């Protein structure tokens, strides 16, 4: 896949300010392996050198959906960042982060300010000195970000106000994730979370779930039943939906043919990929490309 960066800045927004929240910028990037970070396309006002780090004048949510890396901040020792991690940045707090050279990473981010944002992020469950939140693969989070980017591309008359509503939705997901992470998980949930993370790491590979259960010292019957109990779907269906969501994102963010996307996402053929995509997502994958062509980037 090509290196990809999509970055939007938002104009001053009095309507959104009345909601107590103001979206400042938004972006998505797939940073490839063995490349310096940040890359040369990084916005000048946010570029930083690793040795110096940086601090911001705004809040930012950064979601690492794929890959691994490192994060450091005032009062916080170096942290390993895995896929499925949110980094919550506060104004005036020094920090630095980068992906591992051997993995690269995929990142989404949004910068914002406002009284409501300040109120929410000063709640007891949040800690500016410990801004790492592990949420795993969160389809709702990714879908909201995708809608956010699509809205910024089109810039319809109401996009500034709608962008604030989408940001509030993202913050709600983050807030809920923090509250849930503070609750003690059952042993069942811990086991399924561990296996779900492995599925996410190997999302475009064939996964033998019976073998996966065996490697984790579980019977397949217990594993399948418990997986569905915890996540509401079977392991196979979860893995399939994961691949389809990733395929949708690749189609949006690249010029790969549908055949290349199908291969990259582990499907046996373009025909099977298109058929199962239509069945599960209720629209054809080719419609994504047509929509993008009708709304070119600005």
How would you briefly describe this protein structure?
The protein has 298 residues and is α+β, with helices and mostly antiparallel strands. The chain has helices spanning 14-17, 115-121, 139-154, 159-181, 187-201, 209-215, 220-231, 235-253, 258-264, 270-281, 285-294; strands at residues 4-9, 22-31, 59-67, 69-73, 76-81, 85-89, 95-99, 105-113, 132-134.
Which key phrases capture this entry?
single chain, 298 residues, alpha+beta, Jelly Rolls, Arc Repressor Mutant, subunit A, 6-stranded antiparallel β-sheet, 3-stranded antiparallel β-sheet, 11 helices, 9 strands, 19% strand, globular, disordered C terminus, DNA-binding, Homeodomain-like_sf
Task: Tell me what you see in this structure.
- Helix 3 packs antiparallel against helix 4 and helix 9 (258-264) packs across helix 10 (270-281).
- The chain contains 11 helices and 9 strands.
- A hairpin with a 2-residue loop joins strand 4 (69-73) and strand 5.
- Mean pLDDT is 83; it is low at 294-298.
- The strands form 2 sheets. Strands 1-2-8-3-6-9 form a 6-stranded antiparallel sheet. The protein has a 3-stranded antiparallel sheet with strand order 5-4-7, with no helix packed on it.
- The chain folds into 2 domains: 4-181, Regulatory protein AraC (Jelly Rolls, Sandwich), CATH 2.60.120; 187-294, Arc Repressor Mutant, subunit A, CATH 1.10.10.
- Helices cover 44% and strands 19% of the residues.
- Keywords: DNA-binding, Transcription, Transcription regulation.
- It comes from Arcicella lustrica.
- Residues 189-291 form the HTH araC/xylS-type domain.
- InterPro entries: AraC-bd, Homeodomain-like_sf, HTH-like, HTH_AraC, HTH_AraC-typ_CS, Tscrpt_reg_AraC-type_HTH.
């Amino acid at each position: 896949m090509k290196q990809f960066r999509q970055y939007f800045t938002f104009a001053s927004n009095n309507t959104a300010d009345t909601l107590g929240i103001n979206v400042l910028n938004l972006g998505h990037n797939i940073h490839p392996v063995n490349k310096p970070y940040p890359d040369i396309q990084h916005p000048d006002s946010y570029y930083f050198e690793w040795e110096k780090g940086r601090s911001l004048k705004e809040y930012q949510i950064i979601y690492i959906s794929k890959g691994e890396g490192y994060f450091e901040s005032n009062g916080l020792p170096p942290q390993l960042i895995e896929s499925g991690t949110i980094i919550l940045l506060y104004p005036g707090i020094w920090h630095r982060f980068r992906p591992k050279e051997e993995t690269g990473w995929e990142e989404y981010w949004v910068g914002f300010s406002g009284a409501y944002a300040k109120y929410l992020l000063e709640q007891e469950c949040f800690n500016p000195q410990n801004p790492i939140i592990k949420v795993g693969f969160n389809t709702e989070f990714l879908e909201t970000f995708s809608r956010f980017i699509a809205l910024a591309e089109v810039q319809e008359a109401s996009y500034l106000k709608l962008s604030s509503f989408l940001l509030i939705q993202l913050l709600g997901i983050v807030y809920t994730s923090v509250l849930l992470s503070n609750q003690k998980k059952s042993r069942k949930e811990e086991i399924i979370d561990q296996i779900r993370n492995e599925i996410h790491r190997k999302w475009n590979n064939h996964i033998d779930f019976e073998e996966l259960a065996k490697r984790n010292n579980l019977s397949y019957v217990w594993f399948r039943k418990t997986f569905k109990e915890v996540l509401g779907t079977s392991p196979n269906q979860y893995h399939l939906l994961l691949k389809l969501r990733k395929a949708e994102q690749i189609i949006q963010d690249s010029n790969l043919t549908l055949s290349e996307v199908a291969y990259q996402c582990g499907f046996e053929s373009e025909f099977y990929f298109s058929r199962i995509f239509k069945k599960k997502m209720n629209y054809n994958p080719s419609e994504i490309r047509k929509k993008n062509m009708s709304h070119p980037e600005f």
